[in-house]
Amino acid sequence: MDLRPADPDEVGQKLMNGLKNPNPQTSLAWAMKLKKTLRLGNKTDPYQPAELIHRVSRRIQLLLVKLNWSYVIQTKFLDNLSEDDEVMSKASELGILTIMPVITPGAESDREVLERGRTTPIDVRLKLIESWIRRGWNVGVNGEPFIPGYHTPGMFRDMLKRLKAAGVRSYNTYNLHMNDHVAKRFVEIGLDLERIWEHNQDKIWRPIQRDLCNIAAEEGMVLGCPDFVNVNPDWRARSNTCCGITVPNPSRYNAHFWRHLVQKGVDRDGVLAKTWEGIGDKAQGERIVMGDGTCDFFTLRDAGL
User: Fold this and answer.
1) Full-model pTM
2) Mind listing the pLDDT tens digit for each residue in 165-204?
3) 153: domain range?
4) Is 85 in the same domain as 163?
């Protein structure tokens, strides 16, 4: 929940202390003790222009390489990321690097309308992605969010075709997280907020997402699909994260793994036993897996499993 800029030295100390912790008590402490794969870019883009001045993300990458700690970089500023080619090369040699560029389904239109033209041009992103894949680096593209009522399945298919041409074999989709800030921003840029709101509800979104899953299957793409309730119960994940990428050491106590194990015929108690590592809310996880009606979240039974 920390909102201040990252201090690489402090990050490094916390990670090293976490590895040495003899008695982890929290989810975060267990995640560090087990050296779970980290993602740079969950909260804010780690390679926005300020990075070229302060080099916070480079220093953190160097730290993770030193610790041999696997990590994912999520960014829309691929030209800035390429400044750190040397450290990424080392990380790739160690097998700890995954790059997850962000390209939403509207491509160039999204860059101008949603990203205000400040990010790396789409054609440059695709060229850099292609070059990294040719070098044997682990790359998967994040397409979040698919904005129902704004993006279309046709845009989605066109994006997959462009990604395939660049050598990409995995993409991620998820619908919009609507909040006050997002609503205000959409109004400011002239989008049809009412239409987007309506299409974001399950009644309309559910068949759209199933279409996206079918399109990905037709195009032969691995699709990351965290919204496990809205997809067909028979749909199967093909990666070890809900983002459609396979990383060295994922956390496993989550609906992505639970769904996959249930589909394989593992009993529900066995699902929980196989995935609990001290990371997450154990009781909440049990309610989601068991679907006993006492959970505020969607459960596996809501997904038809």
Assistant:
1) 0.94
2) 999 999 999 988 889 999 999 999 999 999 999 999 999 9
3) 38-246
4) yes
